[in-house]
Structure formats: C-alpha cells, structure tokens
Amino acid sequence: MRKIRRTFNLSKCYGSRYNYDTEEFEDYYFEVMGNYTPKRATNYARRYFKDNSIQIFNVEIESSMYAISPEDFLKYGERIK
Q: Using CA atoms, how far apart are residues 40 and 37, in angstroms rounded to an integer?
C-alpha cells in the first residue's frame, strides 16, 4: 500500500553571544525546524531572541523521513479547507 512521505530537517545551530552581565562571550546553541545556513540562522536568532550579539558559526542539519498511511493521515490530520 502507498504511504504519504515527508522529509523534515532540523538545524542545530552553534555560535556565540555576548553576555552583558559578565562582559564575556559565551557559547550559544539552539535548534530550529528547516534547512538553515549560518548566515540565515544568525539573522533568525537575532530576530527571534531579540539579541543582536548572537553570531552563528556552524549549522548541523539532521534530516529524517516520516511516512503515514492515507487512512491514518485522514484520521489524524487537521482539515484546513
């Protein structure tokens, strides 16, 4: 039987940020769904976390594929139209 398949990417972003309390740079890490480059992850993090000192240097992308039967998709899926 056929399955509905979807690939999801998880970007694990590594970088640093300035800590104004200790006046030192510290390691910074966050995860976000999608396929991000270091530049795109930096822009995202600065906007999302409201901190212009964040700089992302490395992004590791974890990719996983999921499958579900059409019957289960209709049973568990959210109807949007």
A: 5
pLDDT digits (tens, 9 = 90+) for 26-77: 999 999 999 999 999 999 999 999 999 999 999 999 999 999 999 999 999 9
Least Cα distance to 15 among 69, 60, 58 occurs for 58
Residues 17 and 29 sit within 8 Å (Cβ to Cβ): no
Q: pTM here?
A: 0.81
Q: Tell me what percent of the chain is helix, strand and coil, each rounded to the nearest 5.
A: 25, 50, 25
Tell me the backbone φ, ψ of residue 28, rounded to 5 degrees.
-140, 140
Cβ atoms 30, 17 nearer than 8 A: no
